[in-house]
Prior knowledge:
Blueprint: H1 5-38, H2 43-64, H3 68-77, H4 79-100, H5 106-113, H6 115-126, H7 133-151, H8 159-183, H9 191-201, H10 203-217, H11 222-249, H12 254-262, H13 267-278, H14 286-305
Helix pairs in contact: 1-5, 1-11, 1-12, 1-13, 1-14, 2-4, 2-9, 2-10, 2-11, 3-9, 4-8, 4-9, 5-7, 5-8, 5-13, 6-7, 6-8, 6-12, 7-14, 9-11
Amino acid sequence: MPISTRGARSGVVLPMGLGVLAAACFATTFVLNRMMSTAGGSWMWSASLRYLLMTVPLLALVAVRGGLPAVLRSLRARPGVWLLWSTIGFGLFYAPLTWAGEHGAGWLVAATWQLVIVAGIALGACGGGRVPLRTLGVSVLIVVGVVLTQFGQAGGITAADTLRVVLPVLVAAVAYPLGNRRLLGLDGLDGVQRTLAMTLGSLPLWLVLAGTAAATQGPPSGGQLTQSLIVALLSGVVATTLFFRATDRVRHHPAALGAVEATQAAEVPFTLLGEALLTGVAAPALSGWTGLALIVAGLCAHALGHVPRDGDRQQ
């Protein structure tokens, strides 16, 4: 039976709404990681503590929902798969992102992170998925908005500082969607279960990183522990779960999947707001507000424009 336009659009709007909520929580990563860095905290502790501290809450959440046995079965059946793609999707995502936070303001890291939009589209194309030109065009609009948002903020940033941010974040921007997509729908796990499985699969890396930090930097401070716990709960548990649930709902539609991944562009205005409130970062200039408008326009275009054709698979 043909799918109504209203129904099809609502099927994309809900995952995108989850994506925007996730972006608001993800923004705490950029703000608090920068605050921990400027206070002298080790990036290795900031990276490893997030995943070490989110393990127990995730275990409890999945257990309460009755999903823990399925996670453990999948991990036992495919240990190599979970170790590899979790280390890529979480490890090569968050360790470089945290390291970049030592070399640039939160807004710079958040803006550069929007390369994940292009990376997600490229991965979809490489995987044989059909990515309409409209999806590419709207995503480029969002990237242009990100550039404009940061244009008026870039004074005093050297080329070397920029590279120390851009190169590791570029690695993170490719690793995150790559790991996520390779594990989408594996063994029927939902977004919450997959978040836990990937957290457990990446634990060897975080334990090595924490051990290295302890040996070279000493224990983390109380402030870093507290801020890392906030990042673990808001970004690691809440945001990641919301984002994975959103991508789960549209995983059979490359265009809609690209649209959901593009909601991460909302992290830029959320990060700017957070830094303005907590660290006193100046408000954007006119070019910055123009960029924010383009980001919002792009998000709306993605949400309202992706109407699945009759016969497309629906979740």
